[in-house]
Design a protein that fits this description.
This protein has 227 residues and is of the alpha+beta class. The protein has two domains: 130 residues, Pleckstrin-homology domain (PH domain)/Phosphotyrosine-binding domain (PTB) (PH-domain like), CATH 2.30.29; 59 residues, no CATH class. The chain has six helices and seven strands. Helix 5 packs antiparallel against helix 6. It is rod-shaped.
Length: 227
């Protein structure tokens, strides 16, 4: 408030009048209310008890001295009650007029032109802010990613080696030949019964999946060659 008053006092206000007004306003202002401007009446003749008009961020306050300056009458209107403000400049000063939504009109005359213009500008800003309130931008919320919980499955313990062994196992050609050559006899030394038995053994190996069809055909051809 003191900083605002320093600016006001640089614009032809009577310091004593401003001091009286601010002293009486101190107990009238709300906690969040700030004085924006004060204009003081200045008539051509000596003005002993000038009227004043105070604008804050919440209302307009008319200040009128009473009882030879021993008391002060205050009339206030909130900004949402004001329908418009006007300034009329003359030779000896300016008139500041504001009207309310209830069709009441109040005028403070003989204001210095500079003060009247400042008063009108501040009032215009407050009315515009009331009509077009600044909407705060929405706060962007950052969602915290949810950590995916992976359930651990305990490995199954295999107690039987038969469970991990293949059902059949191919036997290389060399092992088959060795298995059926343990007698030490060559194919030509075998009897027909032995050759026939060997052929049956080859067939069992094929049926059990221990040898492939191509290998069986080759072994069968060798046996049939000596039958």
């Amino acid at each position: 408030m003191i900083d605002n008053l320093k600016k006001i006092l640089n614009e032809d206000q009577d310091p004593k009048a401003i001091e009286k007004i601010t002293a009486k306003l101190e107990n009238l202002l709300m906690s969040s209310e700030e004085v924006g401007y004060i204009a003081v009446q200045k008539k051509p003749a000596v003005t002993i008890l000038p009227d004043s008009i105070v604008v804050t961020n919440k209302r307009i306050i008319l200040c009128k001295p009473k009882n030879l300056g021993l008391s002060m009458e205050f009339i206030d209107f909130n900004w949402d009650e004001i329908s418009g403000t006007f300034v009329k400049e003359g030779i000896l000063g300016s008139d500041f007029t504001f009207s309310t939504k209830t069709e009441l009109t109040h005028t403070v005359d003989y204001l210095p032109k500079t003060q009247a213009r400042k008063l009108y500008t501040y009032a215009k800003e407050q009315l515009d802010a009331l009509k077009n309130p600044i909407v705060a931008a929405p706060v962007e919320t950052v969602s915290t990613p949810v950590e995916e919980v992976v359930e651990e499955i305990e490995p199954e313990i295999v107690t039987s080696f038969a469970e991990i062994m293949p059902a059949t196992q191919l036997v290389p050609d060399t092992e088959v030949e060795v298995e059926y050559s343990q007698s030490g006899k060559s194919m030509k030394d075998l009897t027909k019964d032995e050759l026939f038995e060997k052929l049956q053994n080859y067939k069992k190996l094929l049926d059990n999946g221990l040898i492939l069809q191509g290998e069986y055909d080759r072994l069968k051809a060798e046996v049939l060659e000596y039958l």
